[in-house]
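Inverse folding, one chain.
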């Protein structure tokens, strides 16, 4: 049995073609059914539907053999206890700093609101800048508007969310895409099945790029 951890929404939707290449078609739709464990057209594969930020935890502890999650989530969580064999190049976006359109460039000591505390700390430290980080769980865009922070660190895709809130992107921290991650013990114990799956995912990737 192989268990794959994945979050609903954009990653799930964009991962479906990869799963299909491996003969894995979920028999329920996670958006409409309330099941957290989904059967698939393969008797030996189940999907578990969890929050995006929980995927590394489930895979690390072996509660799932594999997972699909954003590089943002992986970098924030830490990846020492996982294998990351494949960049699926899906759910792409950019991790950026953003500030109010009228805000001056950052100098001296300033406050940054983000849910990416670890990445943000490392980023500003690498620039030798003094950032006081305020952890938020959502609606980061609000922070500069109400004087909670001088800037934010968040994901940007089209930029529409920033624009709608009178913010603008400033510095690119990194390009983000979703990755396949594998539990280390499972990679040994279920090597053949997992390696086959990785090859099938790679095939989808190569077909797309050609
Ligand atoms: O939504 P929930 O609170 O359940 O969890 P989540 O936000 O962690 O999950 P989800 O499904 O929203 O995002 C999962 C992953 O998708 C992220 O970890 C990223 O790797 C990837 N991804 C790709 C994105 C985006 N693009 C994206 N645009 N995740 C979030 N956004 C949000 C962003 O945070 C901002 O609020 O969309 C808004 C910006 O979009 P634009 O187009 O207005 O710029
Ligand atoms: Mg979200």
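Residues assigned per position:
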């Amino acid at each position: 049995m192989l268990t794959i951890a994945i979050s609903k929404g954009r990653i799930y939707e964009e991962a479906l073609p990869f799963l299909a290449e491996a003969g894995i078609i979920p028999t329920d739709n996670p958006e409409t059914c309330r099941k957290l464990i989904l059967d698939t057209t393969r008797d030996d594969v189940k999907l578990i539907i969890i929050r995006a930020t929980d995927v590394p935890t489930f895979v690390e502890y072996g509660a799932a053999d594999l997972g699909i999650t954003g590089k943002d989530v992986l970098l924030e969580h830490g990846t020492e206890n996982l294998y990351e064999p494949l960049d699926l190049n899906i759910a792409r976006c950019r991790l950026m700093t953003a500030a109010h359109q009228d805000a001056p460039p950052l100098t001296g000591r300033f406050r940054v609101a983000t849910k990416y505390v670890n990445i943000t700390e490392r980023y500003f430290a690498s620039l030798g800048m003094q950032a006081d980080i305020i952890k938020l769980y959502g609606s980061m865009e609000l922070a500069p508007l109400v004087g909670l922070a001088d800037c934010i660190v968040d994901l940007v895709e089209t930029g529409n969310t920033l624009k709608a809130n009178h913010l603008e992107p400033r510095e690119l921290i990194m390009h983000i895409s979703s990755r396949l991650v594998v539990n280390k013990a499972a990679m040994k114990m279920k090597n053949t099945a997992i390696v086959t799956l990785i090859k099938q995912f790679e095939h989808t990737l190569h077909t797309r790029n050609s």
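The helical segments are 10-21, 55-60, 71-77, 117-126, 142-145, 160-164, 184-189, 191-209. Residues 144 and 150 are 6 Å apart (CA to CA).
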